Amino acid sequence: MSEVIVVGSVKGGTGKSCTAQNMAVCLAMRGHNVALVDLDPQKTTEEWFVERRAHLNLVKISGYIPTGSAEDLIKSIRPLYDFIICDAGGYDGAYQREAIINADRFLLVLRPKRRDLKALPMIDEVLGRGMQYNPDLKINTLINQCNPLPTQVKRILDAKYVCESYDFSPLQTVVMHRNVFDDSEENGRGVLEMPDDCRDLKAEAEVNDLVDELIFGIRPSDKGKVA
Ligand SMILES: Nc1ncnc2c1ncn2[C@@H]1O[C@H](COP(=O)(O)OP(=O)(O)O)[C@@H](O)[C@H]1O
Ligand SMILES: [Mg+2]
Fold first, then answer.
1. Contact 171/142 with Cβ under 8 angstroms?
2. For strand 3-8 and strand 83-87, is the pairing parallel, antiparallel, or unpaired?
3. CA-CA-CA-CA dihedral for 10, 15, 16, 18, to nearest 10
4. What distance separates the 2 farthest-apart alpha carbons in the chain?
5. Which member of 6, 70, 95, 110 has the greatest number of CB atoms within 10 A?
6. Nearest ligand to the CA atom of 109
7. Could you read off the pLDDT of 62-80 as tens digits, one per residue?
8. Which atom from ligand 1 is nearest to the alpha carbon of 40?
9. 203 CA closest ligand 1 atom index
10. Where is the signal peptide (predicted)?
11. Are 204 and 192 in contact (CB under 8 A)?
């Protein structure tokens, strides 16, 4: 059974493309058959695939862009993959709406910033409309690009609290602001694919935690538990 995951929001720059790419790399490295669909006319992920082609030894991910409707594309490739990850644009467009209606999960990516939190009523409306057609859609929020200073923990907790009030189930996993996300994206890699001298183990752990929690239901606090 394939799973369709839309990574979206109604704001740009929150880290949707970066998150979608890193999830795709992580799942593919674990042996899953993965498609990554770029639904954003800004083409961030399409360009990432172009960079990626320059490296021969990276894990295989199939890339798609819609030529007609996003719905037709998702339906046609669903039987071919274990996971289909859709990188949606940062606004309420037709592609994102069609993807929401045809998805199993929606991952909302937000920064712990007022500007992103202020967009929640609009996301609520977009998702509410989509769920009239797709009532089984599972929704989670990833708080991304967090400041790792201990004094900033409250901002992250406050952002989670607001997301909870909308029923957008914030993940226990949070992703910090780390340069390796930017550096890896620039040359078509995920953080799990960086050469040894450029690796960032904390970023790698965050990506693994995200996939474990979102897709396999294993929260960071459950890891290491034996009973
Ligand atoms: N956790 C992070 N730490 C550092 N930089 C990040 C992180 N997440 C995303 N970025 C960077 O922020 C910028 C915007 O991210 P992007 O994924 O393109 O956003 P969106 O798709 O939501 O518009 C990119 O340069 C990306 O590499
Ligand atoms: Mg993007």
1. yes
2. parallel
3. 160
4. 49
5. 6
6. 1
7. 999 999 999 999 999 999 9
8. 21
9. 1
10. none
11. yes
**CA 118 to centroid of ligand 2, rounded, Å:** 19
**pTM, rounded to two decimals:** 0.97
Q: CA–CA distance from 99 to each of 44, 121, 126, 141 (Å)?
A: 18, 20, 12, 17
Residue with CA closest to ligand 1 atom 26: 182
Question: What average pLDDT does this structure show over 190-215?
Answer: 98
| CA-closest residue to ligand 1 atom 17 | 15
12 Cα–ligand 2 center, Å: 7
CA of 55 to the centre of ligand 1 (A): 21
Answer whether residue 226 shows pLDDT above 90: no
Q: Which domains does the chain have, with CATH numbers?
A: 3-222 (3.40.50.300)
Note the ligand closest to the C-alpha atom of 14.
1
Measured from the alpha carbon of residue 9, the closest ligand is 1
